[in-house]
Structure formats: C-alpha cells, structure tokens
Amino acid sequence: MDWEECIKRKIAKEVGADLNLIESLIKTSKNKLESGAKLNLDDSTSSSKISLAYDSLREILEALAIKKGYKIYNHECYTYFLKEALNESIKGDEFDEIRKIRNSINYYGKEISILEAKEILKRIIKLRYEILQL
Fold first, then answer.
1. Treating both helix axes as pointing N-terminal to C-terminal, what angle do 114-132 and 46-67 enclose, rounded to 10 degrees?
2. Distance between CA atoms of 56 and 22, rounded to whole angstroms?
C-alpha cells in the first residue's frame, strides 16, 4: 500500500482543518502521555505504558493530518502520510516500526522486558516531539 492507495481506498480523505478537533487531540495526547508517566515501569506496566505512549503519538499524528487537510482511518496510512505526503521518510519508517511493536503487544501478546520498554518509550517520545515540530 502507499499514500495514493490510502486516498483511493478512502482510508484517508481530504477534510477541512478543524481547529477545535486539533486542539482536543493535542490535549488528549498530552493527557495519555502524562498518565503513562505516572505508572511505575515494571513487568506488569511495561505494555500499558507503551500502549499509552503510542496512543499519544498517534493522536499527535491525527492532529497533524487534520491540520494538513486529511482524515486518516488506518494506522498504517500514517506511515505513508509521513513518508509521501510530508516527505518525512525517516519519521515514517520510525512510526511504522513503533506501530508494529505496539501491534505485536496488543494483538499477539508479545511480552516486553523493562529494558526494551525503556528504549521503545524513548523512541516514541522522541518521535512525538519531532512530529509536534512539523
């Protein structure tokens, strides 16, 4: 799949910028990041912290997409949005890797060690910050 196919299949569509929705998504994203930060990192919370951080990142991406005139209905299409619509290939690749890690946790029961969780969380927070700069 690519960005063109996301548009063609209506997984992403053009929309007008909705400033209230953008502001709400940024606030929700911040709340999820702060909620995750309140959890101590241990064997029982590592997956939850990653899921909260990923959701925070995805909501920032959703806000950016809406700001740029798109509504995206599929997490995979955020990769193509970054890579092709915004010419941010490195960020797109990083998001896709993080998305796959999150999917393996949420849908396939992959267990993440505390050390792995620390690294993944750093990556998510770094990418979230970089996307906020776009």
1. 10
2. 13
Virtual CA dihedral for 51, 52, 54, 58, nearest 10 degrees? 130
Looking at 3-119, which runs of residues are DSSP E strands? 12-14, 70-72
Structural domains of the chain, with CATH? 3-132 (1.20.120.330)
Q: Tell me how far apart the alpha carbons of residues 27 and 63 are, in angstroms, rounded to a whole number.
A: 10
- The reported pTM is 0.96
Bridge partners (DSSP) of residue 70 are 14
Strand partners, 71: 13
What pLDDT digit, counting tens, does each position of 96-108 carry? 999 999 999 999 9
Instruction: Tell me which DSSP letter residue 39 carries.
Output: S
